Amino acid sequence: MKFNESWLREWVNPAISTEQLCDQITMLGLEVDGVEPVAVRSQVW
Fold it and tell me: For residues 20 and 40, what is the distance between their CA atoms, to the nearest angstrom?
């Protein structure tokens, strides 16, 4: 199953990094196959 981090953080927003979130999901017994950025962050608004 694929889902994005922002969707997950809408429901549960722990104050941890993306890497720590992946580790926690893995510890729950779910496999994190990979993390892919969906957009490049820009400093220009």
Answer: 21
End-to-end CA distance of the chain: 33
Kindly state whether residue 40 falls inside one of the protein's structural domains: no
Structure tokens at 8: 């997950």
Query: Is 22 within a domain?
Result: yes
Q: What is the mean pLDDT of residues 40-44?
A: 70
pTM: 0.69
Amino acid 19 reads E
C-alpha 10/C-alpha 40 separation (Å) is: 20
Report if residue 43 sits inside a domain: no
